[in-house]
Structures are given as structure tokens and as C-alpha cells.
Specification:
The protein has 171 residues and is an all-alpha fold. It contains seven helices and no strands. The chain is elongated, with a radius of gyration of 19 Å.
Length: 171
């Protein structure tokens, strides 16, 4: 039991920040991200004996986190009540330029088809290699690399299109 506790604590210490960063990117909410990470580590504790290769721990935990996030939506029953318009807060217009750019980029990434978005986020936010992403998503490495290439091209096209529109508006 002491060995399991030591392994678990080492995992939490080494990977907590990476998992939180990925969870926050997925849900855009600090509290939900913290809950996801906590649930991920709880499941990891229960299944720690199934982790044979410590080098695969990060991708193993990301996979658990992705599944835990999916479970969130399985359980959730949305309340379709009316909302009060004055209660809607505009967080964008008072943001700094960098926050606006970050928001713009997140929006463009969120609009990518899931087949392109997910590998891109795993690579950029998670820092995973093509092989690791292929393993997590149960895909061929070449398929992952193609999707990453296409995702980047779609983002590049979106940036160029926006710059063209800005150029016309300023000209």
C-alpha cells in the first residue's frame, strides 16, 4: 500500500498542473476544471495498478480526464428556463488586447471540426507527440499528423481571411 501511495503522490505532483491546464481549456471554468482533475485522480487511484508503464502516465491520465468530462454531459440535464437579459455579462469588451486575441483564437479552434480540434489541443495544450495522440484517440499516427496539418491550415486560413477583411475595412 505504501508503494501505491508513493506512486500516486508522484503522479499528482508531476502532472497536476498539466491536467488542470488541459481541463481548463476544455471547460473554460476554473471550478469545473478543478472538479474534473480531482475526479481524474480519484479514478487514477482506483486503477493505479493497471498503469504498467510510468512513461505513459500523462496520456493515461488525459484519457481518464477526457472520459470524465464526457460523463459530465451524460449526467447533465439542462434546464431550459428563460434567462434574464440584464444578467448576461459582457466579459469581452473590457478585456485587454491579449485576452481578446486569446478569445479569438479559442473561438477559431472551437469551430474546427472535432476530428481536427482534439488532436490540435492535445498537442498544443497537452504537449503530446503524434504517437501519443494516436494512442489516446485510437488512431493511426499518420491520420493524426494529417489532422494536425489540416487543423493548422484551417487556423491559418481563418487568420488570413480576418486580416483581409480588416484590410478592406481600414482601406
Amino acid at each position: 500500500m505504501a508503494n501505491k501511495q508513493t506512486r500516486y503522490e508522484a503522479l499528482v505532483n508531476a502532472l497536476h498542473a498539466d491536467l488542470y491546464r488541459y481541463a481548463f481549456w476544455l471547460v473554460h471554468d476554473q471550478h469545473v476544471a478543478e472538479d474534473l482533475v480531482q475526479e481524474t485522480f480519484l479514478r487514477a487511484w482506483r486503477a493505479l495498478d493497471s498503469l504498467k508503464d510510468e512513461k505513459a502516465a500523462k496520456s493515461w491520465l488525459i484519457t481518464i480526464l477526457r472520459r470524465e468530462n464526457a460523463r459530465r454531459f451524460e449526467r447533465k440535464q439542462l434546464d431550459m428556463s428563460e434567462y434574464e437579459e440584464p444578467s448576461i455579462v459582457d466579459n469581452i469588451s473590457t478585456s485587454t488586447e491579449q485576452q481578446l486575441e486569446d478569445h479569438w483564437l479559442r473561438e477559431k479552434i472551437a469551430r474546427l471540426p472535432a476530428d481536427y480540434r482534439e488532436p490540435l489541443v492535445l498537442q498544443v495544450i497537452g504537449g503530446f507527440s503524434g504517437e501519443e495522440i494516436a494512442s489516446m484517440l485510437n488512431l493511426n499516427k499518420n491520420t493524426v499528423m494529417t489532422r494536425l496539418f489540416r487543423a493548422r491550415n484551417q487556423l491559418k486560413d481563418a487568420i488570413e481571411a480576418e486580416q483581409t477583411v480588416k484590410g478592406r475595412n481600414n482601406g
